[in-house]
């Protein structure tokens, strides 16, 4: 995808043919949205916006996980920052309002907050190895902040099921419900005409066209950010969530999990 021009703290950057690729590269925590990774994404988006040679941003990943969501090691700490949900909301809104198209290439797992990152992108292509799940309810929280980009773009009946059950689903189902633009056996082949089309668009035309298709999503951010960030912070600070996060990190069932009685 081009010669890397910068790499530090979990995000590798490359610029080729007017497309700036930001590669999430934090394998130790499955590209979780740590405070440092969020900061680095902000920095690179600022650079992309200021660079007249960048026509579009391509967000992708190394390893078998696109993004695991919140960094539970950070979130479960007693001194965890209480403004983390507002920070995530700010990042997602920045992607939605970004004046240049943001495209996602996903070939691995997407969980919880990672689905919000994906939903904030304008166009997304998922490969056959991609899987998706809204796992928040299983650890005692809810997909609050990420609902702002997710709900306006997805099928409400399907999202009700996946929000509540935490079930895993594949790329074709993600495309069917609107979480991604399309599923493809070869994501790079599917992306080629997309990126070519973006290179042919004028900067002004692309920015104005993006404003038309993101209006409802931005309205959700303007209306709900404070309420949903407060809800998220309150849930993460609860005893139930602390048990859920601890259970996840210890690879065990949380205390509330009910095992199904085997049929006789």
From TrEMBL:
<dbReference type="InterPro" id="IPR051683">
    <property type="entry name" value="Enoyl-CoA_Hydratase/Isomerase"/>
</dbReference>
<dbReference type="Pfam" id="PF00378">
    <property type="entry name" value="ECH_1"/>
</dbReference>
<dbReference type="GO" id="GO:0003824">
    <property type="term" value="F:catalytic activity"/>
</dbReference>
<protein>
    <submittedName>
        <fullName>Enoyl-CoA hydratase family protein</fullName>
    </submittedName>
</protein>
<comment type="similarity">
    <text>Belongs to the enoyl-CoA hydratase/isomerase family.</text>
</comment>
<dbReference type="InterPro" id="IPR014748">
    <property type="entry name" value="Enoyl-CoA_hydra_C"/>
</dbReference>
<dbReference type="InterPro" id="IPR001753">
    <property type="entry name" value="Enoyl-CoA_hydra/iso"/>
</dbReference>
<dbReference type="InterPro" id="IPR029045">
    <property type="entry name" value="ClpP/crotonase-like_dom_sf"/>
</dbReference>
